[in-house]
Design a protein that fits this description.
The complex is a heterodimer of chains A (102) and B (573). Chain A is mostly helical and 102 residues long. Chain A has helices at 3-11, 13-46, 48-52, 63-101. In chain A, helix 2 (13-46) packs antiparallel against helix 4. In chain B, helix 11 (240-257) packs across helix 12 (262-270). The chains are: A mainly alpha (102), B mainly alpha (573).
Amino acid sequence: MEADLVQRIARNPKYQELKARRSRFGWVLTVLVLVVYYGFVMLVAFNKAFLAQRLGEGVTTVGMPIGFGVIVFTILVTGIYVRRANREFDALTEEVAREALK
Amino acid sequence: MSRRTRATWWLGLAALACAGMAHAAGGDLGQTEKQPTNWTAIIMFAVFVVFTLFITKWAAARTKSAADFYTAGGGITGFQNGLAIAGDYMSAASFLGISAAVMTGGFDGLMYSIGFLVGWPVVTFLLAERLRNLGKFTFADVAAFRFGQTPIRVFAASGTLVVVAFYLIAQMVGAGQLIKLLFGLEYWIAVVIVGALMMIYVLFGGMTATTWVQIIKACLLLGGATFMALMVMWNFGFSPEAMFAKAVEVKTGLATAAGKAPEAAAKEGFSIMGPGGFIKDPISAISFGMALMFGTAGLPHILMRFFTVPNAKEARKSVFWATTWIGYFYLLTFIIGFGAITFVLTNSAFLDAKGGLLGGGNMAAVHLATAVGGNVFLGFISAVAFATILAVVAGLTLSGASAVSHDLYATVFKHGNADSTSELKVSRLTTIALGIIAVLLGIAFEKQNIAFMVSLAFAIAASANFPVLLMSVLWKDCTTKGAVVGGFLGLVSSVALTIVSPSVWEATLGNPKGSALFPYASPALFSMTLAFVAIWIVSLLDRGPRATQDRAGFLAQQVRSETGIGAAGASGH
């Protein structure tokens, strides 16, 4: 890519906005995943009794829905990112590209 | 297809036929673990092989350039690529191993599944789109975007080949053992068949054939596992509580039978519902978790899949689909594991005299297949397990071959001036070499404990490839020197720490217990941190002319990684 094109795109406020928004969203979700996962690992390491207590009358424990929940959360959080990126970030990228290449 | 490729094609088929005949002539005089020859499984697998060979023939006609060979011309859709990634990632080890772990430890088995899954969102948020926008054929294209080509390519090719080698050995040995059990074939025949088929897929069909083999395998595996999980749930009226209750009852009964007092037996039975001995010390747990999580983001054969889609949007979609299918698959393995407690552990037909599983601990899902679907379904699941290994090794080989031909040959030796034809020739030669090496190593490692090899591959990927990739893409001040020094430190330290860890130093090398220098289960916490710190310090101290150039190149790299303007588009010729 030619240097002046790079400069032109980099100076475009829409590009700055795209970069900032996507980066913030990506890192916030990354930290969220790290907190959930390592929170779960720490719970397993330090509070086994909490996870092993029964939910009700039956044998199902607190740990089961939490463990399943982490798997479902992983899928959902990926879906949330992709949904927002497909709608918002792609539109912004297209605008940046259109303005840069006109 | 040229005349020469056609000739090699038939040669490959002939070799395969010979391997089959050698088996037929060899008879059934194998070792004790070998199961009786399972013809249903063999016929179903043969159908899979014939079908995939036709796909390979079709793919071969479309594999003309290096771009076709490495990335299927960039014409795979996000949904297809998602399935292919899932097919690449869901190995036979995770299908058989995790369901067996759940059968043995209940809740603890879930820890593996979650660990293997949580890397995917991170790949989505931080890497997938940027990889697609910056790269062409290999992850080294991305890592070396603004850096000195030779050092980064040499590092990336080393990282790729080391990860591929450990992963490949684990798959080959696993294939041999599994096929011996499931099909009743000799170990070496199984390894040779896997090696030969994988060479045929990759040599002739390149990425197109590999992708479709992975997609078909993913569908078969997901279909088979869904059927098993549904049958289990149906038996319990679709009530998880009923399934758990019965499993606790069975485990309690087994403990009582083993001579435990009623109270202790009840406690042991209920222990499958909560965390048990999986985490002994928190440091090991975190370190192991890091290896699984960030290793996913550094596996070369997975990263390579992002270059098969036309743009960043499809790359993003493909990780979403991959995460969905892999997560769904892990939920199924959990149900399958609990189902195996009830339907396998209580059925003497699946147990040996000592109460262990026939054929070894990893056979939980296989026996459950018989229990819920009879002999034909057992054949189907066995064939799927074999197909699973094929799909994984084909992806690994392709990634190893591209590291040699694209990173080393075309970029380092030819300084980027290699033409597509000669690059293609080098990749095919490398594929043959890798296939032969994989077969030989598979045979050499037959008796080795291979359980640590996959986790080692993940630890190396997390400690070498991932830090370099992340820092080169996101950190402006990263320099060539920093990336290479940090990357190699991560690579060497992760391998060295694994060698002096208990699982290798004591269990594999036979040194006395307690003599291991490194007490934890996984090196990632230390080796990955070391790599990041080294990249950071060396880059900051780097004041050479190359470093100035590296930093100056960041803006152009960032603009392209964010917008995709100027990215290698879909070469959908």
